[in-house]
User: Fold this.
Amino acid sequence: MLRLVVRRLLQLIPTLLGLSVLLFLWLDRLPGGPASAILGEKATEAEVARINRALGLDQPVYVQYWRFLKRIAELDLGTSTQTGQPVWDEFVLRFPATVELSLLAILIAVAVGVPLGYFAARKRGGWLDVTAVSGSLVGICIPVFFLALILKGVFAVELGIFPSYGRQDTGIDATSVTGFAVLDGVLTGEFDASWDAITHLILPSIALASIPLAVIVRMTRASVLEVQDEDYVRTAEAKGLKRSVVRGRHVLRNAMLPVVTAVGLLTGSLLSGAVLTESVFAFGGIGSFIRQAIDARDYPVLVGFIMFIALVYVLINLLVDLAYSLIDPRVRVH
Amino acid sequence: MSLLTVDELTVTFGGRGRKESRAVDGVSFEVDQGQVVGLVGESGCGKSVTSLALMGLLPDKGVTVGGRAEFDGTDLFTMSRSARRDLRGSKMAMIFQDPLSSLNPVVPVGVQVTEILERHRGMKGEAARKEAAHLLDRVGIPDPTRRLKEYPHQLSGGMRQRALIAMAVACAPRMLIADEPTTALDVTIQAQILELLKELVDQEGTALLMITHDLGVVAGLCDQVNVLYAGRVVESAGRRELFAHPTHPYAHGLLGSIPRLDAPRGEPLSPIRGSINDRIAWADGCAFAPRCDRYEMGCLTGTPQLTEPRAAGHQVRCVNPVLDDAKAEEVTA
Amino acid sequence: MSVATKTDKIQRLAELTAVKETSTGASLWREALRRLRHSKMAIVGAVIIALFLVLAIVGPYVAPYSPTAQTWRNEVFPNRGEFVGARGENWFGLDHLGRDVFSRMLVGARQTLLVGVVATLIGLIIGFLIGGVSGAAATLGGDAGKRVDSVIMRFIDMMLALPSLLLAVSIAAVMGQSLTTVMIAVGVVQIPVFARLLRGAMLAQGGADYVLAARSLGVRKRRIVVSQIVPNSLSPVIVQATLSLATAIIEAAALSYLGLGNPDPAIPEWGVMLTQAQRFFDNAPMMAVYPAVGIIITALGFTLLGEAMREALDPKLKG
Assistant:
């Protein structure tokens, strides 16, 4: 197990290095370069030269790249041109909100998607199956931000059931401990704050869950259909086992294997979706921040974000791989 | 009275708009207490479907089962689903063809053995594990306590089949159905597995329904043999009688097509012409007629019935059976 | 579309060509076509696509008004939240600048199709080249070829690891706002998908008996790749291209929502229209619904046809 972890971590290094080269080159190619990003379009040449010297941009490329790497290793992603704060600090501040949102979204997607896919497969061709399959095909085709807009328009603006923006009502005086609004409320005993945070989470997380949900439904369905015809399921039936055991231990457990991998791979699309969803609901996470950074051409934030996302994505998939090796004994033997 | 009586069993696939196809077309046979009965035929003759129908393992949709099957005094096809479930694994058990795909890859072997003990013998925890280890030991798996914790992919092919046999005999069933249990194994392992089956059956007095296309297996194991063709029994006899006097042209051809070491050099093998797809419906006559060397006009006038043209208890479904023993020689068992 | 469906499809599709070898190639396609004709999914998808194509071709000629003329400028007041909905002379109402939404939808279909097609072509062509080189190197290039292949695949996997939308955002950020940027950004995202798919299919083909036979007969390697392996590896690529058209249209809309789309809002394109309309969503939701529904239905058409093709080609999934 440890060896697997170490090996997978080592495999990350070339990927991240390659990525850093791409990002470095990208940063280098930005319109006008960092100098004009800092000084604005109307900077004089002397000023640009001064800034370039100050930033070490007059040095050879490999020196610059090395310094870029060193900075990244020290988690120094530069300073946001919007807020004047270090990019890393901005991320750390906003990350809990996005984690909260993404976790709830993936939870919804799994909690709804797996049973739905399972029962759709069990009653193949029935009304549930047809609804689930066509629903998930349509779900994949709805732009996330449009779904978010509709949800907000109907349930927040028209019906007023849920709040339409933000993470918490301004009226609620919540104590921040971890930055995770729901968890903080529980830790400090301010359950009203937790509840308020949850109501703020519901609409954005439903919007964000739409694509993962569609994927998980279809994946579970296909997987169950394949597994229930396997010989070992017939063996289980031949042993006269209770239905619940046949379905749980023999069908579902095997059918879940590809779904687990899918959940890991969905993280990428989840983070893209978070950028779109958060900006519709002005949810104070990384997504909203990125949206603002795009508008403000805040390049240090964008570069830092891509590096950050790549790291998160890669780490989550590492975790998923490890989880997979726990449930599928066949990959453990190496 | 026999333990299992199968009477005019039919299994039809399709229907409801789709084209029907009859896989089993009126199969009848009996299995006595402690007897080893063979169901022999080439692939597609309906032998596996027969076994699945008896176990109640055919899918609910798109399959119609007809006829009667009486096991230990009760009709299998009219009993409730839950009663059937209670019967499976305890009184009737089954061993399948491919041991690797028949074991759940993500569940330890031990759990796959103990789950049947929990289900039918009410054993739990340590007692169940102990009994499971005992079972593995009994089917000849060395170091059983260690093997219980392992996963199927960690066992060899022969050991996997032994593990499946351990599960099948876990509740000391009255009857065991084995569907080509040795086809997927190496030849040396095949012999070991057959030996094991024979031993278990002899010790416990379990009846064994052996489904196979391998006449060697039949010769080594079976007391009574039923030869199936196109979903019907075409010949039924004791092992010695059948090998000595194969009377249906199909059975005759099957035995004739076995390569023999003592045959004169240069003598060609005599395969049966065509394949099982070249057939006609039993309602129109003998399904084997298109492939038969002894075909005559009478073959196509209605379904041939089982008769005993040679000896009592030796049933043959043929209007023009092979009664001269010129070519049939005894196959030593 | 998500990475998960991508990788999954890539694997599955790549395996399909291996199946193809067992029957003859032509009959597999014929069989697939036969199944496609009986698939409701395929028929609905094809009808939607056909309608969309007709719209894209004739749209600009049948539009009742100019899509850019602010003819009814004096009737809408976005600041006060006063808009004009559907009415006799403007079937889909007016937008925030007093332009006829129906005309803009008709004319915009062509732009939307253009974005999807160009983006997919970019991904298809570059991905095809990369995947082809990689696949050829891996199947027939010996040890050196395998090394080339593994380097290329490392790079491709790196691209796959980046969330597609963010990759597109970064490309768009470098190139500035324009429709071309959107097409390139969305197209680049598709490159690794096509590359992996073609390579996987070629690898499956490379092990096939007929390749071995051709080699033992002394057919030149390049000839085997060009005339045998590549043609036999095409079907999954064609299926993926259909599915990619849907993805491209949706992602182009997302990019323009993020403010990276066409800076010239005068040229109607459904994604841009949707982005503009969302600002007024609370007062005039229908203004956003028309382009959104257009995008959803179009994407659905391509998805349905693509999925149906995938199922038709995959004997394991039939039914």
Notes: The first helix of chain B runs from residue 47 to 55. Chain B has two domains: 4-227, 248-332.
